[in-house]
User: What shape does this take?
Amino acid sequence: MQNLPQIVNKKHKLVDGNPVPSEKMNEWGHPSSEHYVFEGSIVIRNEHTRVDEETDEKRKVLIVSYISTWSAVNPDEKTATQLKNEKAQRKAGIPKPKKRTKQDLKDECKAMGLKVGGNKAQLEARLDAHYASLPSTDDLFVDDEGEVINPAKEESE
Assistant: This one.
């Protein structure tokens, strides 16, 4: 085979054939290991004749396509990175965070003046929505008299 100029294509596709979303790529241009697991790859080599736009000369080129296939990580399973981080935390003596019970969530809802009925997921969603609606400390500032000013609260009044 003669030595032809090459055009290289690199593609990352999901098992269903769709391209991997760009926001789920890592800094090296590969799908993030937090979201995807490598399934395999293929290399396709095709010889094509291309016409040079400047000289109208026909040239043969070799197009090499590297296609990697990825499948989504099961959200119920831990990734290798998560397991590694947990192991490092155990070695450092950092305790595992305790899971909140349904009663803990109900107590927290009651303290915030929120509805306390529903299952655990509904209670967590209700608390998350409540905390998301609260102003962040970035929005607050102190005036000349030392009073804390919340611009979001003043706009609603």
The longest helix spans residues 120-133. Strands lie at 6-14, 36-51, 58-72, 141-142, 148-149. The CA atoms of residues 56 and 157 lie 72 Å apart.
